Amino acid sequence: MGTPSLSPWAVLLLTLVLVGLWAPCVVSRQPNFIIILADDVGWGDLGANWAETKETPHLDQLAAEGTRFVDFHSAASTCSPSRASLLTGRLGVRNGVTHNFAISSLGGLPLNETTLAEVLREAGYSTGAIGKWHLGHHGRHHPNSRGFDYYFGIPYSHDMGCTDTPGYNVPPCPPCPRHSTAARVARKDCYTEVALPLFENITIVQQPVELGSLARRYAEEAERFIQRASDSGRPFFLYLALAHMHVPLAPPLPPAPGRGIYGASLSEMDALVGRIKEVADSLGKGSTLLWFTGDNGPWAQKCELAGRLGPFVGAWQRQRGGSSAKQTTWEGGHRVPALVYWPGRVPARRTSHALLSILDIFPTLVALAGAALPPDRGFDGLDVSPVLFGWSDVGHKVLLHPNSGAAGKVGEIEALRLAQYKAFYTTGGAMACDGSTGPAERHQPPLIFNLDRDIQEQEPLDVASREYQAVLPAISRAYAQALQDIAADNVSVADYSQDPAAIPCCNVQHVGCRCHGAAGATRDPHVEKRTPRLCL
């Protein structure tokens, strides 16, 4: 007796059923995206990563309900380059952003670079940025001109302007002057002349910023944006770039005994993330991907106000002086916490050891949205959705680490990762808590560490060893190929020129650009005339 044949329609129906059974993670509609980027956060600042940390119950719950990535890296070890790479999927040697922009910068992320927000908005998304920008604020470099429908935040780091309540910093900074005749207090590394501005779109709504209420305002504006986008029926992309854990720290309440200022601030950040997760869940679990990570490692020179490195102490560098955290190419400078939460799609209670980067956010979200990458340029990030979904645990074969201020020319690639091996062509230490720095040293042949055995980067492989001789050709080949690929790419050049006229100022007639009126805002006619010239 022959096997009964199926009609074409029956075959099609059976195929659809099987696809539904075997591919539960295929996205049927455009998901919402929330990227939460913490500032200067340490890998060990999450209890899920480091048992000594007790202040992050909401983040730990996020890890339990999603996937934790323990070999995840920022694309640079300082603010502007890391953020530029997140929003372009390209290293600073390609996108042009190799070091931080100033309050008087005329330029920013080059205008020929396409941002993630621009791609997603073209794909039908509502796009919002809340928090720190630091990719240029003058003219067309403002977030509203870089693909974001809505912006609320500070255009650079919140230590780059004075406030009336300066918070905690090392060394402490004075409050803004209130009268033009007031004596200026000069402090190294403190901004004392111009107050810190808070923007809503292109309008300065508060200057100086009230730091104690900033976290609450960010959470409120994030909720409002999510609700507006949900009401519109469009998918949304929210880029929430927190002030935490960058100094100055301004926890809302005095810290409990034994927790310290840093612990209290970490708890505040944790609660903010928990609040955003609740809002996302209220839209219907499974409709929103939430990705939490950091822009670089802790700022060690801030002493007790700096984060926890976990095991990534860069012991080789510490023995020679200086910090092995922010601004360096040691693991403590660029290995950052990373959690992805997407109920029903990203596996819960999973730990991934895939080698991933903040560079991967751009191509991954573009793919999940059903959009296309911009043409005519190379990307350093990968679409890592198979890793997110638990189908694979393979990430980058090679990951490049650019110089970020501690040693070597900023932006240049002089450290790289190949599997478990990390090679340094240049080393150096940033300023440590004790004020020491580590001198720049060139290495030819490179220092090579086996991170599987030496996560503290304490003892490089012996150049004469069989292991070193076996891995050196592959590292040299990968390094040469990477540099060749970058040289052949369409690379951009950022404008780092400065002009005092580019400094955001809501009222030039008041000392420190202070605004008067309710909530710090002003309706003085000077504001309406001044703000568009600064920001449009």
UniProtKB/TrEMBL annotation:
Disulfide bond as a keyword?
yes
| Entry EC number(s) | 3.1.6.1, 3.1.6.15
Family, per entry: Belongs to the sulfatase family.
**Gene Ontology MF terms in the entry:** arylsulfatase activity; metal ion binding; N-sulfoglucosamine-3-sulfatase activity
Q: What class of enzyme is it?
A: hydrolase
Cofactor(s) annotated in UniProt: Ca(2+)
| Catalysed reactions listed for this entry | an aryl sulfate + H2O = a phenol + sulfate + H(+); Hydrolysis of the 3-sulfate groups of the N-sulfo-D-glucosamine 3-O-sulfate units of heparin
**Record keywords: Disulfide bond included?**
yes
Superkingdom: Eukaryota
This chain belongs to the protein called Arylsulfatase G
The UniProt keyword set, sorted, is:
Calcium, Disulfide bond, Glycoprotein, Hydrolase, Lysosome, Metal-binding, Signal
> Can you supply one Gene Ontology CC term for this chain's record?
lysosome
Task: Report the InterPro entries cross-referenced here.
Answer: Alkaline_phosphatase_core_sf, Sulfatase, Sulfatase_CS, Sulfatase_N
Kindly indicate where the leader peptide sits in this chain. 1-28
Question: What does the UniProt entry say about where the protein is found?
Answer: Lysosome
Residue span, Sulfatase N-terminal domain: 31-371
